[in-house]
Design brief:
This protein is α/β, with parallel strands linked by helices. The chain has a domain of about 160 residues. It has 15 helices and 9 strands. Strands 5-4-3-9-8-6-7 form a 7-stranded parallel beta sheet. A two-stranded antiparallel sheet has the order 1-2. Helix 1 runs parallel beside helix 9 and helix 3 crosses helix 7. It is globular and about 55 Å long. The termini are far apart. The relative contact order is 0.15.
Length: about 325
């Protein structure tokens, strides 16, 4: 990482690679910027996105060759978008094979993944747009932290993700429920209108977290990507409603790759609005949902104690 490390941050090397540094700030740093600073969007990509692109390399020789050439050149402007888009044009048969491989529905259809790569290459040139990266699902993952080997994920990350600004560490908020730091973020957002975009069970989050001004925009468990234009329209409607227009508000997202896609469109047009992609962090308030999630089970006792959740998880 060029230049001094910013005050309050530590450098995390993704999977130990010296050429993949990310800044890890404490949650208090983000909370302070919600209280006192300009709006930001914490937009993250973890192993799932990079795993998908590794799988595309296995199906497309042209894409694989382009990735390797980009690494060789080390030029953030290579490849051009025209060249990359041409290589990303996969046929319907290949798209169906890729979808069948992981049952990641609609990811490869209707240009959704092309949009994601384009937005990766050309992030919003806006103060407050934070790009966060990780090559695993949770920090303490011991066995195979991603579907593919870290070196293969590193290849697509180095080839396609330009570093015009330092990356943040994508798993900061998931780590923060283990230490209890996330409580500060909850206290910070509690007086604000809170909008959650995520699966139907999150409709009860306002009650579980004592959020008095709460709204939920539901997404379907398997059809959310296919429904993305409808979800985007509903987000716009809610954020522009008379009850929220002009007010300081925060949007929490639990929507996989769709979260990035939504924030890319909403953040530039939203006023006095913060966006946080929290991944599956919010599931901890729903024991019936989080019961089989490895990251939670690994640190369950610490999370329950740190987040003061004994009533939800009686001994």
């Amino acid at each position: 990482m060029q230049g001094p490390v910013p005050e309050g941050a530590e450098v995390v090397l993704l999977e130990g690679y010296e050429d993949l540094p990310a800044l890890k700030y404490p949650v208090s740093w983000y909370a302070a910027r919600v209280r006192d600073g300009a709006p930001f969007a914490f937009a993250k990509r973890t192993h799932g996105f990079w795993d998908r692109l590794v799988e595309l390399m296995e199906f497309s020789d042209d894409f694989r060759d382009l990735v390797h050439e980009a690494i060789r050149r080390g030029n953030p402007d290579f490849p051009s978008w025209d060249t990359l888009e041409r290589v990303l044009r996969i046929d319907g048969k290949t798209a169906k094979k890729l979808e069948k491989l992981r049952k990641y529905k609609h990811f490869w259809e209707d240009r959704f993944f092309v949009d994601l790569v384009r937005e990766l290459r050309h992030p919003p040139d806006l103060e407050g747009w934070i790009e966060a990266q990780a090559l695993r699902a949770y920090t303490k993952a011991v066995f195979r932290p991603a579907i593919h080997e870290p070196e293969r994920l590193r290849e697509v990350l180095l080839a396609l993700a330009p570093r015009r600004r330092p990356w943040h560490y994508a798993l900061t908020f998931k780590d923060s429920v283990v230490t209890g730091e996330f409580n500060e973020m909850l206290e910070t957002i509690r007086p604000m209108p809170v909008v959650v975009v995520g699966p139907k069970h999150l409709a009860r989050l306002g009650e579980r977290c004592a959020l008095p001004d709460f709204r939920h925009i539901p997404i379907h468990e398997t059809e959310a990507i296919g429904d993305r234009e409808k979800v985007l329209a509903e987000c716009r409607r809610v954020l522009a409603s008379p009850a929220l227009r002009g007010r300081r508000k925060i949007v929490l997202l639990q929507a996989g790759s769709l979260a990035w896609w939504l924030m890319y469109r909403l953040f530039p047009e939203s006023e006095r609005t913060w966006f946080l992609d929290l991944g599956r962090v919010l599931d901890i308030w729903f024991p019936e949902v989080v019961a089989d999630q490895r990251w939670f089970l690994f640190d369950k006792a610490a999370i329950v104690k740190a987040m003061r959740m004994e009533a939800l998880y009686p001994a």
